[in-house]
Amino acid sequence: MMEKITLKTKILIYLADYWKYKDRYQYPMEITQEGISKAIGITVSHVPRELDILIKNRLVEEIKGRVTGKEKRVNVYFLTPEGILEVEKIKRSISNESVHFNGRKYRIYDLVENIREMNWLEAINLLQNESKSIRVKKKIYIEGNFENSIVNRREELEFMNSWIKSDTPFLAIIGSQGTGKTSLIGKFLSQLKGMEVMMLQMNMQMNIEAVRKKVESIMGIDFEHFMKKSNSLIIFDNYYLVDESIVEYLQNLVNEKKKGKMIVAMREETPSYNRFYKMEDIMNGRVVELRIKGLSIEDVGEYLGIGDREKLKIIYQMTGGKPSILCAMKRGDEEGIIKNSQLTPDQAKFLLDLMKGS
């Protein structure tokens, strides 16, 4: 009987590839909470809860050590011997499950171990996506989390709904870190019907070949053919410092006539050499921009449930109305506030104290 695929299942499968690093002096970023969140496609705030359960069940152990790129020692995570046995049990339970890849049907085991087209985590995601697509009768693959979906954004959603019906193939969503670009996309997708959607989280290690392979493995069709379909939508989120092969590919794609649609969500500070379009592409109707900022002071008050105008002014000045900070405040998550802002621990505590007094 196949094991139920959960976040904990994915974390165990993911960490299995990093056992060899356990006896090293310096550890890779991939086995920190931040690295795990990126690999699994969940927010960092969700990771500790899942890891705590695995640690209590003696499947994962926590070690504090030096990590590449970090000045201070941080927590990293490894499978215990019991965890390794659990991973083997999971693999056995799904090895004979079949999925579609490049137009053919394969066993999971063959895809991973024999023809080596993907790793076990990618195979699990493919298997999970196929089971979902059978239920909803369309293919939807989403990396990322939309927990920051909060009030308003009516104008932005109307803009996106007009764009999806237009002949313009590309939409660039631009905003500084924490302004809610991912959340806006989540709201938009929740209202979207009749489209096949694939949303990928970009990072500096991902090149265009990795993207193409992922599209083919998940959607069962190559990137070019997917973009030719009139009901297809590809989303590149967290597009900031990406591999130049992805930039070059998108630059070429902008100049080709495609029926499919693409959304690229990028930070305001994305360097010019990473921007995949020019002003002439906007003038010629190939690309349209949507620039978003933090919420208004009224929306901040509504979301946090704060009516005191003086407190609201202080909160708005300190947060800039950025949804990521506001969501952390509402959760009472001091670390989340610090992570999504440039605020000090004392300032984060001050914001939470303002919330308690409301």
Describe the structure.
The termini are far apart. The protein is 47% helix and 16% strand. The chain has helices at residues 7-15, 33-40, 47-56, 81-94, 108-114, 120-136, 154-165, 181-191, 208-219, 223-228, 244-254, 279-283, 297-304, 309-319, 323-331, 334-339, 345-356; strands spanning 26-27, 60-67, 74-79, 98-101, 104-107, 140-142, 170-175, 196-201, 232-239, 261-267, 287-291. With 358 residues, it is of the alpha/beta class. The chain folds into four domains: 1-93, Arc Repressor Mutant, subunit A, CATH 1.10.10.10; 95-137, no CATH class; 154-291, Rossmann fold, CATH 3.40.50.300; 297-356. The protein is built from 17 helices and eleven strands. It is globular.
Backbone CA Rg: 22 Å
- Uncertain regions spanning at least 5 consecutive residues: 133-137
CATH first level of the largest domain: Alpha Beta
| CATH topology label of the largest domain | Rossmann fold
Molecular shape: globular
Number of strands: 11
Strand/helix succession: HEHHEEHEEHHEHEHEHHEHEHEHHHHH
List the quaternary state of the chains. single chain
